[in-house]
Write a structure and sequence with these properties.
Number of strands: 13
Order of helices and strands: HHEHEEHEHEHEHEHHEHHHEEEEE
Low-confidence stretches: 353-360
Strand content: 15-25%
Mean pLDDT: 95
Radius of gyration: 20 Å
Helix content: 40-55%
CATH class of the largest domain: Alpha Beta
Strand order of the largest sheet: 5-4-6-7-8-12-13
Number of domains: 2
């Protein structure tokens, strides 16, 4: 997961550096303690316990995969800590000890499904990494498809550490079935292998694109711009979006990490959640979860993606919905976006059976 998790770390550290440069929190410096679980879910749980028990930390920023989040969840609940989770996920979860700042399914999956069915067709092929998020995300996408006249013509899962050769049987299967869309929930280094295998097979994204919720500018950079061109992602944020707030953010990020390093939705969420935390901490002047959390709920922030808020009903962020297509420069061109932040609905309560019919 390093290809994307490293960018989350960078977003977190950039926010901390900005806060400290502006005088810290009520005159005190933020000091990060950093552990690297090396993509092993169980290690996330062990390090979370170490942070809280040995290092006396009450607030944790981190986790990319849902498996890692679920390893940390019982630790922060038992010890009453607060985990800030900056990754899109499968929804259908609530914990009073987690602030979810990545997109829930109603903020990405629903709009993506509608767009793909309208522009490409109703026959989807699912390919994902074999862990919690891909299987649950595909369950949601399958329900949306079936309730709106679509179908899943193939579904396969590969090991998180799958190599390029492991995708060859998948490519052969796709070649035989000829779906309208390949819906990918592959993550990490394996994302690069999937898209490169697709390109090697000579498939045309104008006819049969790979559509994803997890493929960001970071993975596109790793796979090659020519390989990523034409494929589609739904996300709250892309580097290319306009606005002074985002332009300033991108400029600072590149100055800190290099002109060739793009921002992405995971960087942006990791970045803004630290600023939300800092603003709340300045008000409460306390790191105690019971004091901090109530002030976080309902808070707002002018993030690079646009104004966001932490929904007090579910501890999830109200975020923007955007659909983008990769261009020749490795950036996403926005095809459509919501007119305002979409209220978080992690349990899809407001969608009923015909979930493609509205934004919520």
């Amino acid at each position: 997961m390093a290809v994307i998790e490293n960018t989350q770390l960078r977003g977190t550290l950039l926010a901390i550096e900005e806060i400290n440069a502006a005088g810290g929190i009520n005159g005190r410096e933020l000091v990060p303690l950093i552990y690297d679980p090396a993509s092993e879910s169980a290690a996330f749980g062990r390090y979370a316990k170490r942070l809280m028990v040995e290092d006396h930390v009450t607030t944790i920023f981190g986790c990319y995969t849902s498996s890692s989040r679920k390893a940390v969840l019982p630790v922060v609940e038992r010890l009453n800590g607060l985990l800030w989770y900056p990754t899109l996920y499968e929804g259908f979860e609530f914990s009073p000890n987690i602030i979810y700042t990545g997109a829930a399914p109603n903020q990405n999956s629903v709009a993506l499904c509608r767009y793909l069915m309208d522009h490409y067709g109703p026959r989807f092929y699912f390919v994902g990494s074999d862990y919690v998020y891909p299987r649950e995300s595909n369950r949601i996408m399958r329900d949306v498809l079936r309730n709106n006249g679509g179908e899943v013509v193939g579904e396969v899962y590969l090991n998180l550490r799958a190599k390029r050769r492991d995708f060859q049987p998948v490519i052969r299967d796709i070649s035989e079935l000829r779906p309208d869309v390949i819906f990918s929930t592959v993550v990490g280094d394996s994302t690069v292998h999937l898209y490169q295998s697709y390109a090697d097979a000579g498939f045309d994204p104008k006819v049969m694109p790979i559509a994803s919720l997890t493929t960001t500018e970071a993975e596109v950079c790793a796979m090659g711009f020519d390989v990523g061109e034409g494929h589609i992602t739904a996300a709250p944020y892309f580097q290319c979006i306009g606005g002074e707030r985002n332009s300033s953010f991108v400029k600072r990020y590149k100055k800190r990490y290099g002109e060739s390093e793009p921002t992405n939705m995971c960087v942006e969420a990791a970045y803004f959640q630290v600023h939300v935390f800092a603003r709340t901490l300045q008000q409460t002047n306390s790191m105690e979860t019971e004091i901090l959390r109530p002030m976080v709920l309902g808070s707002t922030f002018d993030a690079p993606q646009g104004p966001i808020s932490i929904n007090p009903a579910c501890s999830h962020a109200d975020l923007w919905t955007r659909i983008g297509r990769v261009n020749r420069r490795g950036q996403f061109e926005v095809l459509q976006q919501s007119l305002s932040p979409v209220l978080a609905d992690p349990y899809l309560i407001g969608y009923g059976r015909s979930m493609v019919s509205g934004q919520g």
